[in-house]
Amino acid sequence: MKLTRLSAAVAAAAMAPAVLFASPASAADGAQPPANSAPDKSSETKPQAEDGEAAKSAAKQDEDNRFAILRMLNGQPIGRGLEREANKALNGTPEDWRHFLEVGQYQARLEDDRVRVAQIMSRGGPAVQDAGSKALDDGGAEAIKEFLEKGQYAAQRIDDELRATQIMSAGGPAVKEAAEKALRGTYEDVKRFLETGQYEARKKDEAAEEAAKKKPAEDKKDAERPSNGDGHRKDDAGRDVAKPAQDSGKSSVKAASVKDTPAAASAKGGEMASTGADASVPWALGGGAAAVIAGAGMVVVARRRRAAEQG
C-alpha cells in the first residue's frame, strides 16, 4: 500500500516540471489571434465610398450641363443652327450634353454667324459686299467675328459717302449744297443727310422749280389783260395795273401835253405868258399831277377875277 502511494507521489513529482514549463508556452499561444479569425474589411470599404462620391459628382455635373443647354435655349434669341443642335443634344445622352457644350455649340454659332454675314451683304453696298465676301472666303471664326463687330461698319461708311456723292451729282441746287456740307462734316452729318436732309433739300428744289414754271404763265396773263386806253392794264377787278419801271429802279415818267382847258387858256394869256413859258408843259401823269394842274388853274382864275373887279 505504501509502495503504491510512493509510486504515485514519484510520478506526480516527475510530471510537475513538464506542467510548469508547458504553462507559459500555452499562455503565450493564447495571446495570438486564432488562426480562423474574420478578415479586415476596412481596405475594401474605402474604395467603395470613393466610387459612390464620384458617381454622385458625375450625376450632378450631367444635370448642370442639361440646365446650361436649357438656359441657352430660353435666353436671348439665338440662331437656327444653335437652336437645332441644342435640341438635338437634349434628346441625347449626358455624353451628348457634354459634347455640345464643349464643341457643338461653337460649331453651330459659326454656322449662324456665316448666315448673318450673308444677310448683311444682301442689304449693303459695294464696300460691304466686298468685305463680307472676304470674311466668308477666309472661313475662320476670327475673320467672321471681325467683320460682324467692326468690318461691316467701316465698309458701311464708305458706301454711305458714295451714296451721298451720287445724290449730290443728280440733285438740284439745294440738294447739292446740303450734300456738300454733309460730306465736309462728320460721318453723323452724312447719315443725317441720307436719312432726312436730302428730302428736305429736295422739297426746296421742287418748290423753286414750281415757282419758275408759274412765272411765265403769270407774265403772259398780265400781258393779255385789257388796256384802259392810257397804256395801263386792268386786273380782274378792273383796277389799273401799274407798269413796272424799266430804268435801274427809277420811276419813269411819261410826258404829256396839257390840253386846252379854261384854266390852261387863262394861263396862256396871263401869268404863264408873262414868264415866257410854253403852253405845252410836261407833267407827270397820275393823281398827284392832276391835282397840281387843277390847283394852278384855280389860282390863275382867281387872280384874273380880282384884277377885273379892281379895273
From TrEMBL:
Region annotation Disordered: where it falls in the sequence: 26-63, 201-281
Pfam families the UniProt entry points to: ALF
This protein's record includes keyword RNA-binding: no
Sequence ranges of Basic and acidic residues compositional bias: 201-242
Signal peptide: 1-27
Transmembrane parts of this sequence: 281-302
Presence of keyword Translocase: no
Comp. bias regions, Low complexity: 250-259
Keyword line: Membrane, Signal, Transmembrane, Transmembrane helix
Annotated protein name in UniProt: ALF repeat-containing protein
